[in-house]
Amino acid sequence: MDLALPAKDYGGVDIGRRNGNAATEVVVGKYDASHASSPAEATEASGTTTGSAENDGRPALPTEKQQQQEDLLQKNIYDLSIAQNYSQSVGAAQLLRWVTEHTQLISNPPYADWRCSLTIGSTGALEQAFRMLCEGNHNGGRGDVILTEEFSFATALETARPLGIGVSGVPMDDEGLLPKAMDEILTGWTDGRKPTVLYTVPSGQNPTGATQGEQRRREIYAVCRKHDVYIIEDEPYYFLHMPPFQKQGISEKAGNAAQQDQDIDAFVQSLPPTYLSLDLDGRVMRLDSFSKNLIPGSRLGWVTASQQMVEQYLRHAECNSQGPSGLSQLIVQKLVDETWGHDGFLRWLLHLRDEYTVRRDVLLDACNRQLGVLRCSDGNAGNDALVKWTVPRAGMFLWLQVNHAAHPDASTKSVVEIEEEIYNACIDKGVLVCRGSWFRADPSKPLPGMYFRTTYAASTEENMVKGIERFGQAIRDSFRLS
Ligand SMILES: Cc1ncc(COP(=O)(O)O)c(C=O)c1O
Prior knowledge:
Blueprint: E1 3-5, E2 26-28, H1 39-46, H2 64-75, H3 80-83, H4 93-106, E3 114-119, H5 122-133, E4 145-149, H6 154-160, E5 166-170, E6 172-173, E7 176-177, H7 179-187, E8 197-200, H8 214-226, E9 230-234, H9 250-261, H10 264-270, H11 275-278, E10 284-289, E11 301-306, H12 307-318, H13 326-370, E12 387-388, E13 397-402, H14 415-429, E14 434-435, E15 450-455, H15 461-478
Bound molecules: pyridoxal-5'-phosphate (PLP).
Pyridoxal-5'-phosphate (PLP) binds near residues 121, 122, 234, 289 and 301.
């Protein structure tokens, strides 16, 4: 598939296109939009045309236009001397161009005046976005409330609270936030100003691992339109969408990875639409990050939104972070733009997706063997499974639900007390799991169940299996199962 990137106005920023002409339409094979010099352009830019009858066979001197292009080409090289200096908050021109092209390839927002800006990662970008979009309750302020999934990324919750911004959790199912529940919350809102911002993690949500399918995304977007809610789409796990779990397929899959590597088109097409790609109103700010697919320590990501919003974001960044580190940008730009190009980056993401699929399947296999056999022994729950989970379709988290009602002390101890007991037992046995209650959007509401978050992000396969064994033993002990 040849991909045409229409010329884009980058808001007056020199976006460092290496063919030296930002206004040229760039049409390059596959996804590689960054290495954009056609042989003709290269010859023209370098001024090395062969001789002709008019100049007696001697090489022609470059024309003024050719010289200008050559100068521009030189200027557009991002190097250490530039990266060491102060720069614009929007980010280095070359990397800004690359993320803008990437966004166009993946989301292609359906309106003209969208923009990107580099960020210091999604956490910092989210803090800025909250400050831009909400008024806290400090000094008699309104005390806006944002909506989010009922279990949400703990750092996001802790970012909102000190700003005096309230958080209201929307009930979820296996596919994440429930649009009907969100509609009902907004329709029946009586507690001050109705929320105007939704913070959502649509793919491989942290902590539940839930992934919104296309239909779910469209329904949520429709509810946001109905109630005029602005969407912050936080998508660090977007490219970690995985195929279904196959119990028998762990080792085979690893062997097939090379084959899958070839199929970037199918990979990109298999991804659900981003909110940005559905955004007819300019009501979405998307947060992308290099943290989960490249280098967390780069502290680098980007926002995409309408020009108006990005403008405000930048004014804020100028007196806040002053934009991302030049050294980080240099390293990432050399890799993703100059070395890989878009094709290579997508190939890397596909490889990463395959690696995570293998890890996820190892963890799921261990859960099936160690936890799947545990049954509720109390009269009400009968012989039901004690621990349940949904196979994550994206991301790096597995969310385990333990039936607290089947606990022998359920009538005398709260969910949080039993959760703490199991958590401590896990530590004693040498495995760390995260307690579900840590992720509650609204701690004043009762917990809807007892959950533990596990991850297949970093441990070895051997340690994951060991970890689940230990977690299973902690559950057995707590529930006094033989
Ligand atoms: C949902 C979510 N958003 C953002 C982040 C962090 O992103 P960054 O490293 O870009 O700040 C994480 C990391 O755990 C996350 O789970």
